[in-house]
Backbone:
């Protein structure tokens, strides 16, 4: 009975969202464009011509496109409406969700760019996810698919709410990347791992007769949303755990880590932007390397090192901040926070770089999603090369899809919108290539130190070759602002 009523409430909520949406699906494109253009704080660029093309029709809120002629540019209008998430399939439900984040004055988030409204949406998302794990049985596939669609709607609305805020593009990309990562993890937990009430109980609770209250289960289920590495539960990722340490000592160490990473990030993001001539589209080529000068090659190498250093610091800063907040609120213990990264000595192969050194936050998510197609749809036999590399490619493709929002946030040109997907697909190709080379040289007597030195050079060259296809479009996007909320380094420099 409790389950039935919960399902009824869930469907009633979805119905109310649809009812809250506009009732006039025939509203014409120019009317929607005029309303959204007047309210949106987005940096508006023409999607037909790209970020450097004709944007006057939108920047000046002029519905007559001076590029296409006298009539209203329906193509530009439709493209831009897709950009703000208004005129697309299912938009009426999404607009109904938007109504949930209107404040007491009735002001929509697009007008005020409210982070509070986005946070409110995120709370609805978290509650929907937790209720699904607790109240929907693991084998109720249809209900779980419906719940996942609900979570997806909330996630998309949250994403658009963040896009419309006045924070810097760098801060938006950080928040949005994390949110899409959490969403993909939640989707995997609901549909593939099928996390349910049994996974939320301790061994003593399973063996005992005491019932655990619904509120406690919902709280634990909400924690699963953030437990990307599934620490302490089914599907846990194998990572390096810390030595036993007291809570106070661990907290002090994490606070110090936050301060260090914060200063490094502040300094890194204060560096000047590269000259445009160094990051043009032809400079990110993968195959016409003979056309590059020594300066281009040197910049390619050092910019790659810089990009990965900033990304590494950003990941560590996010992780340390989350640990500090969680520990201070008493929501976790030191053993819940294993090391984020593995040993850098594993980076003598591309597989070692991604599988051992780099953070494993999304490993369970991406491998499970990547396994689903070859295992359950194509029924490929495990152990075959086709199965192995299909799973590898799909796992990296999932990572590329998660990073797709960067192109949206930084207003990449049309030919660079799928830069992230291409980059991560190339990583799978690189791993397949080095697997083949290792197989062919397995019987060749080469001392391990020599293999490792050659391997480190190979990984550095491979990343310098492949990274620009995703990093150069970001550099061409112009000033993306600071990642940290408060500047510290500039004050020291000015003083």
Residues:
């Amino acid at each position: 009975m409790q389950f039935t009523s919960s399902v009824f409430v869930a469907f009633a909520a979805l119905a109310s969202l649809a009812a809250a949406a506009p009732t006039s699906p025939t509203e014409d494109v120019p009317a929607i464009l005029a309303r959204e253009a007047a309210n949106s704080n987005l940096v508006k660029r023409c999607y037909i011509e790209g970020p450097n093309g004709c944007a006057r029709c939108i920047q000046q809120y002029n519905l007559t496109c001076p590029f296409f002629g006298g009539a209203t540019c329906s193509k530009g209008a439709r493209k831009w409406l897709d950009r703000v998430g208004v005129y697309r399939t299912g938009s009426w439900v999404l607009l109904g969700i938007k109504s949930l984040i209107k404040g007491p004055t009735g002001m929509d988030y697009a007008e005020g760019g409210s982070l509070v409204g986005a946070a409110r949406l995120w709370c609805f998302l978290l509650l929907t996810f937790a209720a699904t794990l607790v109240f929907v049985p693991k084998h109720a596939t249809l209900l779980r698919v419906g719940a996942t669609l609900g979570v997806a709607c909330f996630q998309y609305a949250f994403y658009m709410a963040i896009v419309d805020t006045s924070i810097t593009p760098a801060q938006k990309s950080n928040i949005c990347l994390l949110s899409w990562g959490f969403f993909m993890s939640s989707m995997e937990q609901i549909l593939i791992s099928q996390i349910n009430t049994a996974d939320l109980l301790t061994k003593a609770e399973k063996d005992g007769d005491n019932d655990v209250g619904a509120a406690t289960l919902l709280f634990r289920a909400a924690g699963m949303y953030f437990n990307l590495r599934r620490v302490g539960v089914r599907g846990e990722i194998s990572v390096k755990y810390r030595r036993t340490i007291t809570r106070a000592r661990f907290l002090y160490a994490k606070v110090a880590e936050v301060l260090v990473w914060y200063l490094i990030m502040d300094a890194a993001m204060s560096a000047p932007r590269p000259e445009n001539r160094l990051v043009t589209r032809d400079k990110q080529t993968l195959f016409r390397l003979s056309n590059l000068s020594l300066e281009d090659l040197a910049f390619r190498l050092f910019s790659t090192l810089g990009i990965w250093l900033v990304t590494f610091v950003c990941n560590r800063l996010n992780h340390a901040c989350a640990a500090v907040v969680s520990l201070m609120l008493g929501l976790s213990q030191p053993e819940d926070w294993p090391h984020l990264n593995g040993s850098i000595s594993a980076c003598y192969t591309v597989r070692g770089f991604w599988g051992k050194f780099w953070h494993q936050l999304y490993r369970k998510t991406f491998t499970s999603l990547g396994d689903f197609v070859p295992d359950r749809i194509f029924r490929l036999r495990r152990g075959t090369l086709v199965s192995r590399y299909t799973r590898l490619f799909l796992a990296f493709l999932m990572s590329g899809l998660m990073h797709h929002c960067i192109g949206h946030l930084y207003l990449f040109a049309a030919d660079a919108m799928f830069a992230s997907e291409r980059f991560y697909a190339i990583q799978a190709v690189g791993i397949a290539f080095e697997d083949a080379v290792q197989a062919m040289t397995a019987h060749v007597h080469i001392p391990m130190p020599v293999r490792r030195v050659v391997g480190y050079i190979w990984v550095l060259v491979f990343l310098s070759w492949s990274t620009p296809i995703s990093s150069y479009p970001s550099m061409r996007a112009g000033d993306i602002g600071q990642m940290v909320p408060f500047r510290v380094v500039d004050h020291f420099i000015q003083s």
Summary: Residues 1-29, 39-93, 101-112 have pLDDT under 50 and may be disordered. The chain has 21 helices and no strands. The two ends are 67 Å apart (CA to CA).
